[in-house]
Design a protein that fits this description.
The chain is of the alpha/beta class and 143 residues long. Helices cover 33% and strands 19% of the residues. It has one domain: Rossmann fold (3-Layer(aba) Sandwich), CATH 3.40.50. 1,3,4-trihydroxy-5-OXO-cyclohexanecarboxylic acid (DQA) binds next to loops.
Amino acid sequence: MIRNVLVINGPNLNMLGKRPKEHYGAMTLDEINELIKEEAKDSFDVSFYQSNYEGDIITKIQDAIGVYDAIVINPGAYTHTSVAIHDALEIYNGIKIEVHLSKVDDREDFRKINFVRSVCDATFSGKKDGSYIDAIKYLKNVK
Ligand code: DQA
C-alpha cells in the first residue's frame, strides 16, 4: 500500500509547453502536475521536484529513502547519460517508475541508450502527459 509518491522531472522539463509538441505535447509541467494530483488524490500524497542539475536529482533520490514509498521519474536527457542517476535509483528501496512523454525508444539512436530502465519496476512512455497518469494508475494498483 503506497502512502506517498515523489515525482521527479529532470532537465528541460520545466520548459514543457515550449518544447516540440509532436514529442512532448502542449501542456506545461504545472498543468501535468495538476492532472497527476487529481488522479492520485483519493489514493496517496504526491510531491513534485524538478531540477536541471544531475547532482540535485541524485541528492533528492537519496533523501527519498525511508520518506517516500515510490518515485516516478522522468530523467529527461539524463536517461541516456547518467550512470550516477542509475546508481542512486539502484540504492533507493521503494518502487521506481520511469516515465517519458515521447516514444523514446522510437527516436534517435542516442535516446535508445537508457541507464535507468534496468533499475526501475516499470516504464510508461509515448503518451505525453498520459504517461505520468499511467504511472499513477500503476501505483494505485500496488498492494
Ligand atoms: C524525455 C525524452 C528524453 O530523450 C529527452 O531528452 C527529454 C524528455 C521524454 O519525456 O520524452 O528531455 O525524457
